[in-house]
């Protein structure tokens, strides 16, 4: 029989809420300070199913928090019957699971979403299901969103914030794959990845995965900080007026070509085409074209593991000549990659067969 939430809190020795803001004492400094981005390698170098740490992009908005793990705590409060705080040892005693998922950066929130930047990788996260932690707090019926706060602070493109704050709809927060994570690819999180603990929301853009996590607050409305209002909102492509905005939440269907490589010269007329496809929901179809979309050829798509990216492949027999290869993915709901005009537009690679 499963342990009741209140009994689990008692067994852990979870404390009642500390003084307001005390959880932020765990941040010793912000170092280095300010915005930082490390771009991923080019698509041909992302050939492995699991992306190594040194090949995974990094995006840090206001600087990296240096955290004293001994002082760290996770506060859970808001519209709950039993608010509480957990230390790191207490968190590590809770049930854990691992989820393999693609990890994608939306790109700059200051530019129109028209560039397919392919800031993407695929990793295995390990942590405590967020739903388990929320159940321990016994959410009230009026709770609709989970606000998450990180220990980082500072300025991002002229906008000051005393904390990084995002929100999730409660139904998403209760999805079994959403984690309060402390490991990536079997290793403890590094400082730059949000150590000691970060939020992981597989299938959603990385901006929603609060690093240096210290507080979860259940509310009946969306958070009002700059990272939900000023930044990370986009024009809804479903709005014919082109005015309505939507939050940058779920990752749209996307793909990239790994083989052939750009400008590669091949002597073999049997050409193996390879790539990755991903989306917040499974990708069920990938097609390739060599004539700018006049004719399409089907590719084989591997079954998704957890919320991972999916390998696709096609075998082409081509005469000598120059080629422009495009790949287009389709998700289980029927959404297709656009050919142009969006950040997830189709990837194109030129190559030659001699």
UniProtKB/TrEMBL annotation:
Moybdenum cofactor oxidoreductase dimerisation domain span: 247-338
Protein known as: Related to sulfite oxidase and related enzymes
Organism: Cephalotrichum gorgonifer
A Pfam family assignment: Oxidored_molyb
Residue span, Oxidoreductase molybdopterin-binding domain: 62-225
One GO-annotated biological process of the protein: sulfur compound metabolic process
Organism superkingdom: Eukaryota
Keyword terms, alphabetized: Metal-binding, Molybdenum, Oxidoreductase
GO cellular component: mitochondrion
Cofactor(s) required for function per UniProt: Mo-molybdopterin
Lineage summary: Eukaryota, Fungi, Dikarya, Ascomycota, Pezizomycotina
Example GO molecular function: heme binding
